[in-house]
Structures are given as structure tokens and as C-alpha cells.
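Lab manual, section 2.4: Encoding a predicted structure.

Procedure: take the sequence of the chain (190 residues), apply the prediction step described in section 2.3, and record the output as C-alpha cells. A sample record is shown.
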Amino acid sequence: MEKVSETSKNMNVLKETDKEKIVSFKKDDGSIAYVISWADEKNPNRTNFAFVDQSELVSKKLISTASLNDSSAVATVISAAKVSFWNGSYLETYGSATTGGVHIHFSAKDGLWLAGGAATAAVLLGIILDGPLPFGDAIGALVAFGIATFYWAESNSDNSIDVSIPYANALQYPLTGHVSMKIGSHWYTI
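Recorded output:
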């Protein structure tokens, strides 16, 4: 958890609107990466998200190395090109406030990155879960740990992975410090 606190100190919100959020962060290796989340235009219950490495912006010639220090320019480029970075990961709410929850689908690329167990993953999942899930910012660390632990046993045949957390289970977090979640096809209390 100490590493998670350190990572969250190295984050910077580049853009935040009702429909989109872009955050930069320093990865474990010292390089800069970004997470972008945005409202799905066709499904109001869905939020798409993607992870983008700074090197990817330069290699795709979307921005020059000299412009990487301009947060506004970086946010504009990522926002405009978000679909090109999207690997199919999304968070979707389901049901009602009493019987519903969130379902998170991680694409193969994003799932493998999370399975690597980087402390950065916990912080990023907290950013994505904050809002749609009660105590989502704290539960992100538990989801990251769960994926890192059970990815190889619970990933889908295409290496993607799904996680579901009922709202009722999330509400137990402040009382127990744990959350029961479905990772793949099994339930785990983490």
C-alpha cells in the first residue's frame, strides 16, 4: 500500500469534464503514462477507458517530444485520438442501487498489464472506479490485487478478464476492509 500512496502522489489530472477524464502518472520504471476514461455515447451505463504510454504518443507521431511537457497539448492529443488507444476495456453499471453493481471488462492487452501487478494499476483502477462504485477509489487496489493474483486462472480464452462487484459488497468495505468480487467465473473476498 505504501507504493500505491507514492504512485498517487505522482498523478496529475490533465483534463476533467462530465464526459471525459485524463490523468497522467509516473510508472514504476519512471516513464510517464496516462489513463483516459470517457462516457460511451451509445450506452449511458458504460464508461470506456484506455491506458496510454507517453512513448506511444511520440511513436504514433501524435505529438513531438518537445511538446510532452505541455499538459494541455498532451490532453488535447489524447482526447482526440482516444479511440485509437482503446483496446475494448470498459466499466458498465447494471441493475438498481440495491440490486446492481459494476462489471469491468479488461481487454487482453489491459488485462495482461494489470496482471503484472504494478502499484500503478491500483491507483488507475481507483480513478476508473471512483464515482460508479461506492469507495471505488480504495477498492481499485483490491481489484488490482485480485487481477494480479487470479488472472492466469480466471482470464477468458482471449486473455481478457471480467470483474463484477455488487454495490452491496462495495458498501461492506469500510466495515471489513475487504470486498467480495467475481473475477472470471469465481467469487473471491479480497
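Check your result against the sample. The mean pLDDT is 88.
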